[in-house]
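Input.
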Amino acid sequence: MRQMLSIVMLIIAAAPPAGALTPGAVGVGAAQAQTAAPAQGSAEATLMQIERDATAAIIKRDVKAITPLMADDYVFTGPDAQVQTKAQFIADLSSGDLALEASEIQDMKVRVYGETAVVTYATTDRGTYKGRDIGGRYRWTDVFVRRGGRWQLVSAQGTAIPKPTP
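Output.
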């Protein structure tokens, strides 16, 4: 169960949307978003678009689209302190072990600090990991670094939001 939760957290962290997305709901392409002007307002809009594009790619299980958005040294830390790499994420997506059906983001904030940016948000997600339900609400912190003029996700951390008790 812990590994399953870590996998869903990795997926969502790699790609939170700015609203509920379906496989056909994609805005500006990642390549276009990567070439935005370096102004801070532009960087914020670019990072939000990268998050949308990544989510669409994950829902479609489009490994070619998601791979360049993640740095090779990407690391995810789940709520159980389990650490996962980019290679592990790509393997789960490629195999179909990970099937994200929908993800809706709330309260997204982007903070840019030169060549580094921090994106925080909450999500409500629906999907499965190895046939098990991974739906629920999560709180995320993603870290991006601009390398060679492109923003890439280098780190993500997720926390499950407990269901309210009646």
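The chain has a mean pLDDT of 80.
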